Amino acid sequence: xxxxxxxxxxxxxHPGGSRRNLRQPSIKDIxxxxxxxxxxxxxxLQNSPLVNAKTAAKIRKIADEAGYRASAVARGLxxxxxxxxxxxxxxxxxxxxxxxxxxxxxxANDHGYSVFLxxxxxxxxxxRKVVQAFAERRVDGIIVTSSRVGALYLPRLTEMMVPIVLVxxxxxxxxxxxxxxxxxxGIRAAVRHLIGLGHRRIAxxxxxxxxxxDAERFAGYRExxxxxxxxxxxxxxxxxxxxxxxAVRAMETLLSLAIPPTAVCCYNxxxxxxxxxxxRARGKRVPEDISVTGFxxxxxxxxxxxxxxTVRQPMRxxxxxxxxxxxxxxxxxxxxxxxxxxxxxxxxxxxAKVSRNANGNRRS
Length: 364
Description:
Elements: H1 27-34, H2 38-45, H3 53-66, H4 72-79, E1 84-89, H5 95-110, E2 114-119, H6 124-136, E3 141-145, H7 153-160, E4 164-167, E5 177-181, H8 183-196, E6 202-207, H9 212-228, E7 237-240, H10 244-255, E8 263-266, H11 269-281, E9 291-296, E10 309-312, H12 315-330, E11 338-341, E12 344-346, H13 356-361
Parallel strand pairs: 1-2, 1-3, 3-4, 4-5, 5-11, 6-7, 6-8, 8-9, 9-10
Antiparallel strand pairs: 10-12
Helix pairs in contact: 1-2, 1-3, 2-3, 5-12, 8-9, 10-11
């Protein structure tokens, strides 16, 4: 079909012409305009030293005026690199995951990589399929947060030659590259803080799925009690699913005990939200009646009423470290197999000294 200038539709405008480009110019188009071979154009656009500097500058000027944009697919065919990575999160709505994503993307963009994002909905089978799909799309590497599959990736991805880094892997194994928070030390610091405030009947509200993070945090809880000679009471351990709704029910179980706890150490900040709601629903106050701690230091932790004492994970930094490790793996360099990140206790208003009444009426 003819256009208004009388030419055929789909033509490429000459550099400097008034007609707007109707299609993306190709390397062959640039070669024709520059009167050189298309391999010469390809080398010039990749800054190859094989092309005379003056010729290369002329080619790049023509390409720029023509609106040429290098095809990532074409580059990939030559370099066998797509300059892309796959990033799998449990859910895009997770505040923890969103911070990790920011760290990954920042570092990836700084190094010229694009990021494909997908969620697994915390489903191991879906996680496997997403990772498989990324590998088939020939991404250069993969990062998975809070993996439910973990070391089981290794044999399959080794065959595919796809580097992978896990962030807070829930089922870690040997030779899997990962970035992990020091869970045990983090919870141990929170429990020690509560003990220092005079609490002796301290509950642990954990996660019911038996993930590695929960196992390590529970171990830190036990270590802190044992180190101070405080007896462990199994009835003070309840489980949710890492979300507020289940934590409400778990906290109700603790509040129904003949001798309720004076403090509760929660698996994460989301659980702490549910615990605080349950405490208020029983007409009790935080921290006057019961102190509460969380884990993560999500964005809302300083805005709860009262502000939440919690263990901070440097989530954005963990994303950066994961991407930096992946860059090394993709370049064939040696990379630390397991990077452990320090946890930091952030003390706010949800914890206070145990009340005199509590000491008198609630024996540990």
